[in-house]
Each structure stands twice: as structure tokens, then as C-alpha cells.
Amino acid sequence: MRKPKALLLLLALTLTACHGTRPDDTAQTLYERALEALATDSTQTADSLLHQAISHAQQEKDTHTLYLAQLKLAQRLAWGNTAEALGMAKAALRTYETAPDSRRNHIILLDYVGTYAGQLAYTTEAPYDEAISYTRRALDMALAARDTLGDELVSQTETSMANLLWATEQYAEALRHARRGVETAPDSALLLGAQQVLARCLASCDSTDAAETVYRSMKTKGDIQAAYVVESSLAKLALQRRDMAAAEAALDDAFEHVESLYFEALGQKDAYYRTALARERENERLTYRNRLHRRTLWGGLTLMAALLAAAAFALRTQMRDTGRKRLSEVWARKHEVDESIRQSRLREAEAQLHRQRSAAQEELLHSRDATIRFLKDFILQRSIVVQKLGASADRHVYLTEHEWQEMERTIDAIDGSMFEHLRQRYPMLREEDVQLCLLTRLRLSNRAIGNIYGLTISAVQHRKLKLKKEVFGEEQPEVTLEQVLDNIRQNINN
Hints:
The protein has 21 helices and no strands. By secondary structure, it is mainly alpha-helical. It has 3 domains: 24-221, Tetratricopeptide repeat domain (Serine Threonine Protein Phosphatase 5, Tetratricopeptide repeat); 281-383; 401-493, no CATH class.
């Protein structure tokens, strides 16, 4: 009786080892598998593997793999949650500084943390002090190591510093860093980004001719999005000079690039569908292979059962009633183990197919929504704000009552009668409150809104805070008026 039990136990252990997780996985192998998953657009699998790699690296005290996995996860989080991305990037920096391996990696990590801190400050309208502090550390280290590491990191950090200083309206200082970023850019990719920052700083310093010269010298080389940025920026500069012919030509070129972006997005969606179909076919092929393997396994089990039956027949004459009972229990446990293995594999195959389909649908919806939002914002800017700016070159902008009404009708047409809903739901809204909501929805900066009302930036911020608290009832300081309006618009559309 002991020999059949031992055979069944060995078989069950073998099946479990073949079907379970890899016992030899390390932090490094998990990180490499995560990179392979990202290369095949398996984002959910990649995120799970990165979390496992971080956990294994902490247990193994593998600081190199730990900070690499933390940085890669921060890059993944930056698409949806800048605050979590900043926290993970800081964790990667702290991990690296416990056992640094190269000055280049240290500079890159500091620049990443500064970039994420700047993005968070922009979205929450918080101070940029933390972002500037990290980026300045990266810039100082890049300048100190310039003889050994070259100009690439100097250009990158100079451009990052110029971006942050421009966001804080320190235009002269930002212009100085932007010029150094262009002068030290070693290749076309870094040069294109540095030129965009330099042109923006020149335009903010009222050097429109110099800004136009930089924009026209930029070589986009088939980059449709960069070409759109160049043409739309040239249109804005022409409007500032009241050169309506040049502005119209630049706007037409920009619109052509928008159309190209739209059709490129359609092509990418078609390619995505083709890739998803190919993956589904591959999954069907793997399912068929699994089914074939299960049949082979059942054949082996049948042979094993035949051998056990022969052994049982040989021992039958020596068994008593207690022996027969034990043999029947063995067979029952064997059947339960086989049935459990079969059901587990079927459930896993179905769950994997469902996850892949859900991920494909989610990525498709995200791509479609991003394209729609981009086109809506472009149409809104082209139809209202750009035309009005083209009619006046001075600092103060006056909008007539008819223009306010036209602006409200256009936004309601795009956002699903958002302001009609606001007037019904919040009857205490005054007309000047509605106008401030309109300008906020257009994503105008506080400086631009101040030009319309003849107010300072701090006065505009105070009016926004007062409207957010007293009318919409939002008490949390980190929630901006833009976010309140976005939440209302999403509720209307849903």
C-alpha cells in the first residue's frame, strides 16, 4: 500500500512544480522580465513585476536593481499620478545615494526628481522651490563633471532649469540657462527641445524677432507634433505683431499638422487592432498547446492508473477489508488532485484571456479620449482666444458682452452644455463669476486673466480661491478651480 501512495505524491508534487511560480526568481530577473513585458505593451504585467522586483531587491539588499526598478516604476506612474511618481523617484534617489556607482546616474536621477517635482507644482499651482533645488544640484554636478561626461548632461540640466525658471516668471535667468542649453546640445534630439525652451523664453522677454528666428531654425525632421508646436508658436508671434497674413498662414500649417496627427492616431489605432488580433491568435495557439499537453498528461495518468491497477490486482489476494478501504481512499484523492489541476488550469487560461482583452479595451479608450481632448482644445483656442488676441496687441484685453456670450456658447457646444448646467445648479453664481469660470476653462494663465480684468496675478488667485470656496464649497487648498470645473464637466459627460 505504501508504494502506490508514494507514486501519487511524487506525481502531485511534479505537477505543482510545473504549474507554479519560478522558485529561482531574483530581483534582477524580475526586473528584466518587466522590461520584456513593457516591450510587448503588457503594462499591467510589467507593473506587477516591477513591484515584485522592488520587494525582492529589498530582501536581497540589491541596491542597484532596487533603484533601477523604482525609477522605471516612477516613469510608469508619471502618466497617471505625478505625486506617486515623484515619491517613487525620490525613493530611487535615496536608494542610489546609499551606494552610488557613477556620477552620470546620480545626475540623471536628480534631473528626473526635479522634472517630476516641477510637473506636480504646475498641476497643483504649488511653489517650484523643491523642483528648482533638485535640478540645480543636477546642473552643478553636470558642470563639475563636464570634462569627463561631456556636454550632453549639461545641456539636459540647463534646459530643465530654464523650463522651471520660466514657469516661475524669472524670464531673464531662464533665458540665460536656455541659451547655454542650446550651445551645449550635442545631438538633434536634445537640440530640438532646448530650442523650444529658448524660443519660449525669448518670446516672454519680448524678443519676438529672435524667438521667430529660433523657431524657423528648428529642424523637426518628420516630427509632426514638434512641427505643430513651431507653426502655432509662429502664429502667436505674428499675432503679437499684428501680421495677420503670416498668422493665418502659420495657423493653416498648424491645422494641417493637427490633421496629420489625427490621421496618424487613426493609423496607430488600426495597427493596434492588428496587433491585438495577432496576440489573440497567439493566445489561441497557446491554448491549443495547453490542451494538447493536458491530453498528454492524461495519457500518462492513464498509464499510471493501469500500472496501479496491475499492482492492486497483484496485491488483492493479500488485502483484507481494511486494505480495500485504503486503496479506494487513494483513488479518491487521486481523482480530486487531477480534477483540481484541470480546473485550476482552465480558470487561469480564462482569466489571462479576460485580462488581455480588458487591457486592450482600456488602452484603446485612453488613446481615443486623448485624441478627442486634444482636438477639442485646439478648436476652442482657434475659434476664440487666438482671434481675440490677434485684434489687440496691447497688454489690456477688452471683451464685449456679445463675445462673452459667444465664448460661453462655444464651450457649451464642446463640453455638453456645461455652463448652462452651472447656472441651474449654482443660482448664486454672478455673471462675473461665470466669466472667471469661462477664462479658467480656456486654460488661460493668471497673468492673461489679469490682463483682461486689469488685476495682478495675486488678485486673480484670490478671486479664484473665493469662488471655489463660497460658491462650489471646495475647502481643500490643494484642489484648484480648474480641477473643480473639470470634475463638474466629467460628471455632466458621464
